[in-house]
Amino acid sequence: MIAKGANLPDSAIVRGEARDLDHDRYLAALLAPAPARDALMTVAAFHGEIARIPTNVREPAMGAIRLQWWRDALGGDAAAEPTGSPVVDRLRHDIDSGALPLAEVLSIIDAYETLLQPGALADVAALDAFLDESQGAAFRLSARILGVEDGEAREIVGVAAQAYGRVQLLRALPLLRAKGHNPFAREPVQDWAPVVQPILAATRQSLRELRRLMPVASLTLRTAVLPVALVEPYLAALERLGSRIASEQAGISPLSRVWRIYVARRRGRL
User: Fold this and answer.
1) Whole-angstrom Cα distance, residue 220 to residue 167?
2) Which of 70, 163, 240, 245 has an alpha carbon within 20 to 30 A of 251's alpha carbon?
3) Long-range contacts of 124-131 (CB under 8 A, 24+ apart)
4) Which CATH number is associated with domain 11-267?
5) Interval 199-251: pLDDT, tens
């Protein structure tokens, strides 16, 4: 488990970014053991920063430039001066100390760059890989922070990424389309049902598998993947949208979000 660092910069700023940009992981971090919270908040803030880039830029080249800045800032000389970004500096501290693997961190950056490419997730294998390299990598970083062994985490993290990642990708679809990005097809889509319905069905299947696996998971591993407690309500919200799923973002109430996370943490089940 990564302990708090006495000289790490601006933890309040990092927590604020985690809260604003990846609220589910922020809530999960609040319920984690105190020594791990700062590092978990850093992962949440980092993932949120990266995930929002494709939904905030219209030109793919501009998104690629922003993502490359993160690669350079995180993968550069360990003795480099502070970047001015508390998220980068705290994350680089954990990478340089050997606490977090750089490969998993860079995986998240690479994965979200694919959302800038038309049709990049058009086939099932590409979609599965994206989910593993984005949400899966973020879950693996959280598990490592909490001290979960890689072998214990592998199966549950893989299934969690498939379930949680699908609902988050569908929730981001209206934002991506508003910026002219469609990772599911190279040509304009007139009828989204044939695209979306298999993804919703696969989410249901992953959720069933996750519920089968969770009773044998340690409490620590369950904490690492705690955001999956929100898959069910997100899925219900997406299904309620019907044909509007590609134009309106699905959401759940803030109180419901907090309650589901809290109950899952206390009871140890989804």
Assistant:
1) 24
2) 70
3) 127/199, 128/162, 130/165, 130/169, 131/161, 131/162, 131/165, 131/166, 131/169
4) 1.10.600.10
5) 999 999 999 999 999 998 999 999 999 999 999 999 999 999 999 999 999 99
